[in-house]
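User: Show me sequence and structure for the first protein, then do the same for the second.

Assistant: Starting with the first protein.
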Amino acid sequence: MPEKKAKKTDDKDAAKGNASYGAENIIILEGLEPVRKRPGMYIGTTGLDGLHHLIWEVVDNAIDEAMAGYAKNITVELLPGNRVSVTDDGRGIPVDIHAQTKKSALETVLTTLHAGGKFESGSYKVSSGLHGVGVSVVNALSETMKVEVERGGGAYVQEYKRGKPDYKVKKTGASKKTGTKVTFSPDPQIFPEIEFNDRKIFDRLRQQAYLTKGIRINFFDRRPEVPIFYGFYFEGGVLSFVKYLAQKKNRIHDDIFYVEKEQQKINVEAAFLYIDDTKVQEMSFANNIYTPDGGTHLTGFRSALTRSLNTYARAEGYLKEKEENLTSDDMREGLVAIISVKVGDPQFEGQTKNRLGTVEARTATESVVNEALKEFLEKHPAEAKAIIAKVLLTAKARLAAKAARETVLRKGAFEGLTLPGKLADCISKNAGESELFIVEGDSAGGTAKQGRNRHTQAILPLRGKILNVERARLDKMLANTEIRALVVAIGTAIGDEFSLEKLRYHKIVIMTDADVDGAHIRTLLLTLFYRHFKQVVEGGYIYIAQPPLYRIQLGKTVRYAFSDAEKDKIMEEMAKMAPAKAASKAAAKKKEAAATEDGGEEAVETTEEGTGEAAGSKRTPSIQRYKGLGEMNAIQLWETTMDPEHRLMKQVTVDDAEAADKFFDILMGDDVPARKNFIQMHAATVQNLDV
């Protein structure tokens, strides 16, 4: 009976199409195989961010040698053939035989996960490569890797292919130097696109030079015919970093707050100043690793800043007894701050280390900054007064903005489900399939309303150019009719009440004319979204419509061109089509005439411009240049710009938030000389300029 029952179960599984599942199906991945099988677990993605993460892992090892006091020079080179080389003058990776693996320590480090000197407290007091997977992961994901080591009076080398050594470590000669050189080429089997961004690498290396006092970092891009070189060396540490971030900005105070002190065996270094701006620039680091999501060290800094400034404001009479304390957000507007901690055994969230979780880092940072800031405010009364005046003004604006925001929300609800009257909403309430087209002008808005798919597409026409929000406070923004309508239509609210979950449309499409005014309106809208709806941008919900520039017609054939190059190509193709059409019509005419002579019915003239071959050969395409969306009829706008089956749209993404922030400052801020310089620098490469 048991055997029969078991057979019945097997038959049932077979009937379901289930594959066998037993001990023989349990696969054990050895060595570096797990990395190649699931690279995303180790570097986050196999896209361009993951590609550059390979460089960061190798550079971090060199930085660790510098933080330990052994390396003074690091060189990073981009080489032809998608190769990268990182060299340091540290101690060099050990090459003697490892007692446990019976292989050289170099091969052990390069081919074994969780193998390295970061786990043994005597080798590194602090380090960025803590999981012991960094360089071995790079090896696993590289098509080739070559490691050259100088230490103990000798020079050594070993090469690898996709994580496997070609040969044992061999000595190539004598050397009086020490250090390590790693040269690798990412594996195209892993990375679908291999294109290193020199600017991204440049910014990262400069950042590391700021965070490690007295170290020199050289960067060579040897891919062009004429190599590019940059060198970085800073003695001021994060103080120099803050000066750099605040350059060409209007400072609220002259002296920069700076402190470096060890607390609870954690080295805390912090610097900040205030500028006349509404944005905040906070960057936090743990063991030189940028933590974009912050963590305990950033929380400790914010807590100390809020407490110290509130205490000072009350002691000096800036805050009355019955007045509420200033909030953390009040303290951060216009703040430019760098917080860097060095921790012996930091706890990060994931291998990509975006957030620090070490509890001790909060108390250490809060204690160090609180004590130093109290002393700074007492010794620099002019700076203290300027800072307090700045945060008090921010608090006042916050209360005004809150009142304005509540008014907008109340008014929107009163007018009917928070939707403005000018919005032609879609029928669907499913945000995943709903689209909002923000259209320039009532004329284009009317055409779009006629041509749209009413079930999924909503239309919001804007009258004129919206307010430039780069320097505007929230209360002033919400006084603008067009911005208020847009905020209410999107549904997420704004400021403290913002909620991405309430987003009413998963495609918000900016649809403006293909001219200078349209580009300006598009830039103003992008500024609004980037500054106040950043999560919507980062979520990939913002798109830019691409209406055609030309309508080209030959007879009954109509085609649209989205660029001058495409127009020229279509014109060339139609020029070839014209004689063929003429010949075809001439043949048809001749056949009809013959049929008439044979007693058939009289031929009917079908040509538009005459008869026969001569008439057809005179045909030329007609071209219409669209200067605005209003020049299209509803059917044309639908077919070319709104129909999901045929339209072209660009999704707005933010790959480098710091660079985006800088460009928005230049293009939309009040620094006229910087904007003029930017225009002059890029004038020769400008495209699509209307004259």
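Switching to the second protein now.
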Amino acid sequence: MGDTLTQHGGPASNGPPVVAPTARRAPAGQRHERIPALDGLRGIAVVGVVLYHGGHLRGGFLGVDLFFVLSGYLITTVLLRSVGPDGSIGLKRFWSRRARRLLPALIVLLVVVLPVYAHWFATPTDLDPVRYDGLGSLFYVTNWAQILHGQSYFTVTLADSPIRHLWSLAVEEQFYLVWPLVVVAAVRRGGARTVFVVASVLGLASAGITIGLGLTRAVSFNSIYLGTHTRAAGLLAGAALAAWFAVHGAPRSEAAQRRLQGAAMVAVVVLGAMWMTLRVTQQSLYVGGLAISAIAGTLLVATAATSTSGPLIRVLSLRPLRLLGTISYGIYLWSWPITQLVSERHTPLRGWTLLIVQVILTVDIAAASWLVLERPVLRGAIRPPWSARVLTFGAVAAAVAVIAATAGAVAAPSTSVSTAGYAMSKVDGAPRLLVVGDSLPGRIVQEGILPQRDVLGVSTVDRTVPGCILLRSVGIVRGREGNVRDDVHPCDDGWGHLIERFHPDVVLMMFGEFPNDEVEIDGRFNLPCTAAYQRAERAKLGEAFDQLTAGGARLVISTAPGSSVSWVLAGMPPGMNDRVACMNQLYREVAAQHHGVDVVDLASYVCPPGERCKEQVDGINLRQDTIHFRGAAAELVARWLIAKVFGTKQVAPPPAATTAPKPPFCGQLALLQKNLGQFSATTFGAPGSPERDALIGAMRPLPPGFESSAPPELRADITSLVDGWDALLDRVAALPAKPTDAQYVAALAAVGAPVAHLGSWSATNCG
């Protein structure tokens, strides 16, 4: 993305137009000039990326692939031009130039953005992934850090790391480190022809691996998208093009140029269609889409690098595109952070107006970075050995900035409970309880039952598996973003062994995280409550019931609670609570057909029929993340569950600890939540009815002191909510009597994010 090549102005040769780094001074009479069309191509690529970041171009992320092809072509050309008479390449000089080209602007980005983000925008849990991204960027391994830590590229939220986009720079830098060594070995063995063969074979292998993984879904699409081995195809396609030109020369004849430009126009149409329509979660992207994008990009690079006329060259040589291409590295670095920090959440701007402001800021900062920092460094403003010392000092300063800015990071609540083996808590003479399911019951056991084992009087074995799905053994699982979930495991591994070893008196089974994942059944993906899903689930439940009661234990299956706040979860398929209710009914039906199986109705305890799901019980916040019961909430639910499971009187809670007084703003938030609770009722009268008018009238005034008593960290959310409140009420007034989930989402779209952040603040501060 930060590569620069120039075109030789001297006599023609048998090879492609002579190219060399701009920092190398040409001999007298052989001055170099930039290739305008290549700059224009960079400009188009970065425009696609910026529009994608702003949410205005569905497939604009493919601009990164065009950058990959450009980088592979330009870097390989530089390397081949640098081959000495003895076949050596000045690798030290090459890597030094790469460092001087890329590190200074990256260091400034980290030193400026991360402290600003940490101080004014982030919560402690927001900082956790930023630490990985920041340190990973300095070592150019951000893509692998995101894969290993489960950071999804497909799920975009307002709290995303402002440097998550550096994964692609990491891929390029890994290429810059390894590929020159390959070129040296290939040149010594057979010259540029061998380089072409090696680049072609490795490029085809990378594309083949990508297609194979996409077809088999052996790993998640997220891993395929971020992986170096899968994204190397574009870089290697550009490298093969450079080697081909070095061997055979650029097309010179008029007929060859016409054919090349004709192919390039086809590539423009293909890429245009892909950029307009292709989503990053579509399987077609991984079973040929990325390969097609690389081929089309290679045709465009070949044309831009060798042609001097024609309609495509005239467009690519337009001054605005060339200027954007010149500062494209800075635009790439700053576009995503500005998109995150200057957003709907933090400004009153919306839509294209917001995008224009973001673009102006991005281009201005990128231009300043090029004029003040990047170009002077490339022109030798800091001479060796001081350049190495300054870069080293800068990298250390950036590392310190990352560590200092994320010092208050708190890991997001983990769903990891007992993925290997099991956890046991024994109470002498107490009944034995085995708990199976996913992280919903796992958290109740770990944070509710085990800490109260003496009070509850129960020996417990926890064999929950976070994120497990009972039907995982039937087929693969696809998440709500459309990606294959490689983190999902079957729930029932080892159940028979535990029954034989532990001899439980009671088995408690519970699931909570299934309703938005699809399972492949008979070659098709099915959400819960489809006919195929229900048939498979009914059969699997029957097998599980027989297995868990084989030793004489009584089995209790708990219904899963729904949620009143599903609309705050980005990308949630509509109808989640309907699917939860449907599956709970299936549990009841299958349990009724099996001797020794009972049902405990946790769903009705948390979400009473016809009422909004409870957010608090006895002053305790139930589910801060909308799914799991944690801490005091886990202890509360554990006491209720144990009483129901063993048919005993509910255990009284321990004496309440003295708590700090709640902030005054908690009262205003409680009134706001009450208003929104009325809005979320199952039915509230037809549009224009007295019931609807009464509801709107009750919601019309925001709570007294809503703005004046708000703490500073919530001011941006309060402003956004106040600005959108009247529009929200207008949408509420127009809703049907029984809105669908999708209609709820649409009505709340403008205020959903600030309300979600207010709810999070309330859960933390108003306990």
